[in-house]
Specification:
Elements lengths: L42 H26 L5 H17 L4 H12 L8 H10 L5 H13 L3 H14 L3 H25 L4 E5 L8 E7 L5 E7 L17 E8 L2 E2 L3 E2 L11 E5 L5 E8 L2 E10 L2 E2 L3 E2 L11 E6 L5 E6 L10 E6 L13 E2 L10 E6 L5 E6 L9 E8 L2 E2 L3 E2 L10 E6 L5 E6 L10 E7 L10 E2 L11 E2 L13 E10 L9 E6 L4 E7 L6 E7 L2 E8 L6 E7 L6 E4 L2 E3 L7 E3 L17 H13 L4 E7 L6 H22 L6 E5 L12 H7 L1 E8 L1
Parallel strand pairs: 26-32, 26-33, 35-36
Antiparallel strand pairs: 1-23, 2-3, 3-4, 4-5, 4-6, 7-8, 8-9, 9-10, 9-11, 12-13, 13-14, 14-15, 16-17, 17-18, 18-19, 18-20, 21-22, 22-23, 24-25, 26-29, 27-28, 27-30, 30-31, 34-37, 35-37
Length: 707
């Protein structure tokens, strides 16, 4: 008879500390009950053993209760194993005891070791209960013997009686579906390379690695003796601390505790790192439940935690995971809030009411029936391409435990989740994932037994496929300096198996004269809609920044800092643009006579001088600058390439500069503060013999002539 535990129990395994129990060799014989008549000369010892078995049974029930609530549970089963071992030393020939030992091992870190105990239980009493065949099926599955697993699950199903069938048949059917999925995927492995990240892992649980878009920073959680305070939780695990590692000189640095405002003597778990590694979401206990908090990097120090919106995101229930969206407008998170919940933990999302007021979030909604299942969803990662979501789930076509899935936003709906396949997923738990901006690498957490340092480990997945040759010397067509072309020699090649339509721009913002870092605001605009998409910030101490720009939009980028002229660029990225990583330092100029800036986001139709509507955000920035500095006088200049006659180019350039001046005057700027001039093709900044060069030469500039 299956043991009476909560109907919500979802069979799964959590990584734990190994308990080395030394069991003697199996003896032969018939089933021997723990009765006084069988141990006439050992009655006192039998009484002591029965007391220990009762205590072990109570520990198992407590473990199942925690398991039903998707909480850490393995310690209860391992404590029970210690007591059952004493009973086994006394009487190894009891079928029920062998079953109980095997069952505890399934729920600890010794799943494969459970096989001989469960097999012996059946040998001693083939009709013991349906549950022994169920757990033997699980042991077979963990041993990758899918054929025997299916056979034993079916035997278990056939032995269910009465109400047991209604209660436990769905679990067995789920296991059979997982066996089918495992058989199919293990016979058709995907083309990936999976490797243990030994530089990050310890003999303890190391998990939930979050990587920056450019794979320069990883933040992870670890339950090891070096955690703050060195204390243990109810599961006898060390409390979790958050660690950081940097990719330096071709390898990952030893993980370092983040300390300060991040780690405490309680459980602290990072669940997401922003693409630019300037912000992180973490989860802490807040009374009787878990909540999500935000911390931002100020220079080299992480700021104090800010709790996310109460009753919008955080509730009286558990919010256990979260992910940044690429534009910082939405947050996706995991909760067991029963509102619109399909069962267990589900994925939800919330959007900003006002993108400039970060604390204002809207009501949360379910991520949808396409993604959520009646089983648990544990982790969610929104890729910076703005359309792909990765998540872990015990549902869909899982191979067993938690598997990793991918879905893409198509026509306003999420596509049917795709299992990432074997060997990314296994019959064990793959519970967390973070993916590089290129889509070339994923960082997953698994408690698989192969190449494992202990408990949960972090693995790096490399998606294999035909790579494009690296560009040796590419003239940057997306970003240019004010007056000259920039040559880039490091553009990462896209991976054909899962290429991301995404451009990542990274670099530093520096003072033009001192070359010192500048703390600046970076505004990203959808030029087609004249809407600000989002605002980011460079690091105040290093000047570093990183932007993720999904393909399919015409972006305007403006860099602004106090006491500096703004700097602008234009990214026109067609939908089919491949992934590329562009490294560039941006230099800001102080307000000084003779300083000149290219207005990259002022647009005209070919051969015309009517300002296109997409130019409005750029012109508004120029208007704001003149309004804030009333003594400033500027010259607006137009420039063309050398195509066509010089007379036409001269007139066109002059008219375009004049159009900008008229826009500013109409807004209220005095005519004696703005003058215009056309230079035709006489001041090229690039080679007119190339298409890209001619594009750079067609530009509008402004120059300070008086201050």
């Amino acid at each position: 008879m299956l043991h009476k535990i909560r109907s919500q129990i979802v069979i799964r395994v959590l990584g734990v500390f190994a308990i080395w129990l030394l069991f003697p060799f199996f003896s032969t014989g018939q089933n021997v009950d723990f009765k006084a008549s069988n141990f006439k000369d050992k009655k006192d010892q039998l009484k002591d053993i029965l007391t220990k078995m009762d205590k072990a049974d109570a520990l198992v029930e407590a473990g199942f209760l925690r398991l039903s609530q998707d909480e850490e549970h393995t310690y209860s089963f391992e404590q029970a194993l210690t007591l059952y071992n004493d009973a086994y030393q006394f009487n190894p020939d009891n079928a029920e005891l062998n079953f109980k030992i095997g069952r505890c091992m399934i729920h600890s870190d010794r799943q494969i070791e459970s096989l001989p105990f469960l097999e012996r239980s059946i040998k001693l009493d083939p009709e013991l209960n349906a549950s022994v065949y169920f757990y033997l099926g699980k042991a077979n599955k963990y041993s990758s013997n899918i054929e025997n697993a299916e056979k034993n699950f079916k035997l278990s199903m056939g032995k269910l009686k009465g109400k047991e069938e209604d209660l436990y048949a769905p679990q067995i059917k789920k296991e059979l579906n997982e066996c089918k999925s495992a058989r199919e995927k293990m016979s058709n492995p995907v083309r990936v390379w999976v490797e243990n990240m030994s530089a990050l892992n310890t003999p303890f649980d190391d998990y939930s690695a979050s990587v920056s878009a450019d794979e320069s920073v990883i933040i992870l959680n670890s339950r090891n003796p070096h955690s703050t305070g060195g204390t243990k939780n109810l599961n006898d695990d060390y409390t979790a601390d958050i660690f950081i590692s940097n990719f330096e000189n071709g390898k990952w640095s030893p993980p370092k505790s983040m300390g300060g405002n991040i780690n405490t003597s309680e459980d602290d778990e990072c669940v997401a790192l922003s693409s630019d590694a300037q912000r992180l979401f973490l989860v802490r206990n807040n009374g009787d439940n878990k909540d999500i908090y935000l911390s931002e990097l100020h220079g080299s120090e992480w700021g104090k935690l800010v709790e996310l919106a109460r009753n919008r995101i955080n509730t009286e229930y558990n919010e256990s995971f979260a992910s940044f969206s690429h534009d910082d407008i939405k947050i996706y998170f995991v909760t067991d809030n029963p509102y619109a919940n399909k069962g267990g933990t589900d994925m939800f999302f919330s959007g900003r009411i006002n993108t400039r007021l970060k604390e204002e979030w809207g009501k949360a909604f379910t991520a949808g029936s396409e993604l959520n299942t009646p089983n648990n969803e544990a982790c969610i990662f929104f890729h910076p391409d703005g359309k792909t979501i990765y998540f872990t789930s015990q549902g869909h076509n899982s191979m067993g435990g938690y598997d990793i899935f991918k879905s893409t936003r198509e026509s306003g709906r999420w596509s049917s989740p795709e299992n990432l396949g074997y060997p990314v997923n296994t019959v064990y738990d793959e519970k967390y994932i973070s993916v590089s901006a290129s889509g070339k690498h994923a960082y997953i957490t698994s408690n698989r037994k192969e190449d494992n340092k202990g408990g949960y480990d972090i693995y790096k997945v490399t998606f294999l496929g035909q790579k494009k040759p690296m560009s040796v010397d590419n003239e940057d067509q997306l970003l240019a300096s004010r007056t000259s072309t920039i040559h880039e020699s490091t553009l990462e090649a896209p991976v054909s198996i899962d290429a991301k339509n995404l451009t990542v721009l990274k670099g530093r913002i520096l003072d033009e004269f001192t070359k010192e870092p500048v703390s600046a605001d970076i505004e990203i605009v959808d030029n087609n809609k004249n809407e600000i998409i989002s605002t980011f910030h460079s690091n105040s101490e290093t000047g570093k920044f990183l932007l993720s720009l999904p393909s399919g939009l015409n972006y305007g980028i403006a860099v602004m800092a106090k006491d500096y002229l703004f700097y602008s660029e234009n990214f026109d990225l067609p939908e089919i643009s491949d992934y590329q990583l562009v490294k560039k330092d941006i230099y800001l100029q102080n307000v000084c006579i003779g300083c000149k800036i290219v207005l990259r986001n002022v647009f005209f139709d070919v051969g015309k001088f009517t300002i296109r509507p997409a130019s409005a955000p750029e012109l508004e920035r120029l208007f704001k600058l003149l309004n804030e500095l009333p003594r400033l006088k500027v010259e607006l200049s137009g420039h063309t390439d050398n195509t066509g006659s010089e007379a036409i180019n001269q007139k066109l350039s002059e008219n375009r500069a004049k159009a900008v001046v008229e826009y500013l005057v109409k807004k209220g700027i005095s005519t004696d503060r703005v003058v215009y001039k056309g230079y035709g093709s006489t001041e090229p900044v690039a080679d007119n013999n190339t298409l890209e060069g001619r594009q750079l030469n067609r530009r509008t500039e402004f120059k300070i002539i008086e201050n």
